[in-house]
Amino acid sequence: MPTPPAPDLSAVSTLLLDADSTLVATEEQAYAAAAGVRRQLLHRLAATRWDGDRLREHWRGRSFRRIVCDLAAEEGVRLGEAELADWVDREERCVTARLRGCLAPDPATGQALTRIAERRLLAAVGSTSSARMDACLAAAGLDELLPAERRFSGEDSLALAASKPDPSVHLHAVLRLGVRPEETLAVESTRCGVRAAVAAELTTIGNLVHVPESERPARRAALLGAGALRVVEDWQELASLLAEAPRPQERRSRGSGRVPTPRLSPGLPTGLAARGQAVAGIAAVSPAV
């Protein structure tokens, strides 16, 4: 597949970086750590239609809350709020403990992100909880580059928890950072992450840094098909792309950004539109920080 032309990044002042499996190599470890909880959940729901490949593909980029809700809905099982919260908490504890113990800094990633941060603002976005994001960034040595006030969790940062491909966490991050969508670049590694960023009207680049070599051709095609303008192999390639772009103009003062009504991708559940629009509506009355 020919490489698409480099997108115009000259206006980019801010990057929203997906945390799980993009900033940090969490996918394999998280999936393995949750194996026991996953088996118990499938047994509870009497779910027999979710084979390993289908479940793993659905897992990518989504929160465990979203996965539980999706499986329960397909099996026609109604879960109460207390039971749903219990499943989310069980997965959260076992996965966060595993990631805290196995992740380590990657010098190449740290150097590339430091290079990018010299000229642009970095923020982290993700579908998982703030506690997991904090643990992962600390273990990977990225917590200073991405301080707590620039981390946005679909599980904890919103009034109503939402998971990609819902664009709410991207919209919330744009609002809180006080930047304009047209000066914001999203970097994602999954199809649903790209769909979320595109729905928030953000320029989006895919990153294959933690995708196994054998899976990269298919993932590249999936990310481009979801709306990514370019797919890079790693953070160093992205840093080089940004270095080639002219230095962005001085950012407008905080609070001057426009948060758009999300342009939902085809096939995105209509229930997500209301949440995304609600976040966009908050922009008209809420000051940025």
TrEMBL record:
- Identify the Gene3D superfamilies for this entry: HAD superfamily/HAD-like (3.40.50.1000), Putative phosphatase, domain 2 (1.10.150.240)
Keyword Repeat among UniProt keywords: no
A family per Pfam: Hydrolase
Would you say which domain of life the source belongs to? Answer: Bacteria
Cofactor(s) annotated in UniProt: Mg(2+)
Q: Which UniProt keywords apply?
A: Carbohydrate metabolism, Magnesium, Metal-binding
Q: Which GO terms describe its molecular function?
A: catalytic activity; metal ion binding
Q: Where is this region: Disordered?
A: 243-270
By sequence similarity, the record places it as follows: Belongs to the HAD-like hydrolase superfamily. CbbY/CbbZ/Gph/YieH family.
The protein's name is Beta-phosphoglucomutase-like phosphatase (HAD superfamily)
Question: Organism, per UniProt?
Answer: Nocardioides panaciterrulae
